[in-house]
Records
---
Amino acid sequence: MTNSSRRKLILSGLAATAGGLGLGVAARIANKYGLIPPDHGGIFGLGETLTYASQRLLTRHSLAREFSRSQISKVPFPNEIAPPSEEFNRLQAGRFAEWRVTVDGLVDRPAVFSIDQLKSHPVRSHITQLACEEGWSYIAEWTGVPLSHVLELVGIQPQARYVVYFSIEPDWWESIDMADALHPQTFLAYGLNGNELPVGNGGPLRLRVPRQVGYKNVKFITRLTVTDNLKKIGKGLGSAAPEAGYAWYAGI
Amino acid sequence: MGEIAPVLNSTSAVPATTESPRHSALVRVTHWITTVCFIALLISGAEVVISHPRFYWGETGNNLTTPLFQLPIPSSRRLVQTGYGYVLPDQNGWSRALHFEAAWVLVLTGLLYTISLLVTGHLRRNLLPGKGNLSRGVLSREIVDHLRFKRPTEAEAWSYNVLQRLTYLFVIFVLFPMVIWSGLAMSLGFVSAFPATVTLLGGEQSARTIHFFVSLFLVLFLLVHVFMIFLAGFQSRMRAMITGRPGAGKERT
């Protein structure tokens, strides 16, 4: 081995060690500031983490684009939904008067709301785009109560890091971090284009998180739970999406 | 480095005592990382397109609106009218993950490459056309030579001709920036922070359509690039991009 190649080897060894240490420190800092997604493991973990961390640094407070009334799509395309359960049919027959959404977890005052009760709270609307990961999209006016308002009512505890939300459809659940949960455009939506939210679009209650693609906007919400740890829910990857091979964070 | 003086045929047009390789280590490494990422992006991108092979112009578009055009392929989603009697399996989960991960690696590699282009003088020396090379005479001779599939001389193994230079500049400074921009313009999170990136392209669906066409141009570049490598001499060009020296292997034998 020549001198120069030995020097090169030592230098690259040092560089690799420094790089490794640097990565370790970076990972610890990133975790402290909530920049590591729950599905950070595996071969795609690097990409998921880079996307989530950079978008969190850039978009913590940014607002989803809003559109004018004239840009609203003629038909808000309802994507395929699973055949409704008997329970859903029963609730629908009663015009969803008996629909309930439970809010629990790291909250001071766990609560149960009906759709009418949610409607008695501040009514907010935004005209935003719903974009599906498949590539299609539509613009519609969504009406509902800001999730931040509901969370304020039940009193979230300081250690809260995520809000997990469940559909009446079995195995359909997602979660978002507090930046999205407290974001002013994140709604529990019950109205679409001035009418009741149609079942095809997620009625009677959909979690509308306009800075993430369609599948994070879970339809038929029945339960919200506030947590500091996603490891104990499902397979511990954060939501149903990563269990099916999709990303937990879907702002892209 | 440089302990063994290159033993080269003195009649060869190849520089006889060159210290620096045909392609620097940085160019070679970034080239192959880009190659791997591009192939990953191509496969995963095609998979995602299959879930909705319809393209639109403007902000929105879906199965209920009129598309600009629809690819005549089957789809992995039941609600897309394709005319085929079957639905392909959903591959979007890993496709999207691979697409974004490969995009990250490619963008970071591309940044490193672009900075080195400017810092090392690679841009001026090897990519910007030399003085007088943009004259009509030189250009038309190059074009005719290319159209005749004329094999380059041995001397040309050590530099790029003017058409190559213009093509590489176009790929590096137009196609790649456009494909990155149009890709980011489809990200709901990204455009919430930088809305102009999507409005300038005419809307989210326009960005998707632009992304598709720029990708097609990149594929066209790849095909021509590979074809030209075969034309110029596959072994010497591959050796140059792997070891740095077009003739290194030959000399040892």
Note: The mean pLDDT of chain A is 93.
---
Amino acid sequence: MSSGAVRKRWPSRVLGVWAGAVVAFLFAPIFVVVLFSFNEPGRKLANGSWVTGRYNYKWGRFSLDAWKNWNAYPDLTSAFYRSVRIALVVVLISTILGTLMSLALVKYRFKGKGIVNMLLVLPLTMPEIVLGFSLLTLFVTANVSRGVITIVIAHVMFCVSYITTTVKARIRGFDWRLEEAAADLGANAWRTFNRVTLPIIAPGIAAAALLTFALSLDDFIITYLNSGRVETFPIKIWITKRSSIPPQINVFGTVVLVLSLALSIGGLLGQRRRGRVTTR
Amino acid sequence: MALGGGGGAKPVGDGLHPSNRWVPWLLLGPGLAWLFVFFVIPLFELGRGSLVRGGLSNYSNVFSDNGEVILRTFVYAFVATVLAVVLGYPLAYFIAMKAGRFKTLLLAAVVLPFFVTYLIRTLAWKILLFGDGPVVGFLHWTGLLSKNGEVLNTHAAVIGALLYNFLPFMVLPIYVSLDKIDRRLLEAAPDLYADGRRTFFKVTLPLSLPGVFAGSLLTFIPSCGDFVNAELLGGDRQRMIGNIIEKNFLRENFRPQMSALSFVLMLLILGGVLLYARVLGTEELA
């Protein structure tokens, strides 16, 4: 780019190699997750027969078995579906609560805003184990038995902060006088919200909702402390790991990876198209 | 960015009726109530719970029983955070300054680990570090590890996995702060006879420090509270605070002590965060 290229070449090459190495470090386990979904753990006996192992830690032999029999562990499958259902409820509740909060914080000037912002940031600055254990203390003191409802409560608690901060960042630049213009042109409050406000804030909300879905699906530490006997997908893995780690776990992991990739690529392309429309 | 439109940086509340004092609180109400009941009150309950049966002696017991674990937890988290800066800063710099049209692709690569369930990607590290897996094999081959040496159940395994799991939280904020730097400043520096190194240390690095601070908190805090990595990749001598709480959270008798332990962990971290918030303001943190 600039002059002095001769002197610059050496450090910038080191930088490139370093960046590549770190990306490889980030990719290595992902590669392993996908690869080991095609593994059949176990070993070959002297007589040539195959003994299947219970722990998918070592490469045995290539097999499509885990993909064909993805439902071989119905408990694992049902735990996965349970996690998805919980995540959907969490997204619904926390998106509504979080969007309302972000609208209040971006659109209005009021006393106590600093404290509200602080309260929103604090849950994000606390380790999950503290959040989870303090919530458990509350449930124990109040004699609330743990289950799906307490899991949802816990997830919404930390997701509201994520939603609010994400949506807030996305809608900060919006010119709110457009709402006034709509009202001046005779639109009532609902119509104004529906036709002006919502289309503008929708992309930000959608992105935040996706993030929340992933956070809820993936959460382990807080969930584990407040789940009672209910098993979410991560909890199921945590519990079975003592007796077996079947490759089906990796099949689910790979499916989640591919779906999230597809969704984000779709979202990115959609955003790009919208961007083109608005700049026109 | 599509939202930018004609808005720009309007003052807050522009075009709104200032008389509607109760409207923001109506919008905030449900969310604030949720946070108050399920975040603020539990923290008070935690504090109260840490003082029942034994009072302050719960705290002295926490330190005498788990002193080593507490120290180890903060050392692990600290080392993981420092290593995350060392690994993450150059990557963030590369993405922000040199990646050109590969920027989006590289950013996607950084967040890709989040698309794999936390427990599953940590289990993948167990596969990589297992007995005669690739990492151990390589270390034996280079002679860095003695013939029967293991990687699993070592400090390095746990710290490495913490580093891995929270590295994206370091890279992204540093990237954001580097990306925000006005490029004209970087062009002005050589005009004023600063060489590359001087430009970096006098201009780029200071301007990216907010990102380094944010990234450090986002790496350090979850590392402090984690028990998954120590459980899956470490042994008895790699236990962290989280493991102690995880082992005892269902035992009625241990609850006051566990509350005290959580409270200590929280206070130590909170101290750091408040210091940070004072320096940079809470808006930046979010």
Note: The longest helix of chain B spans residues 57-98.
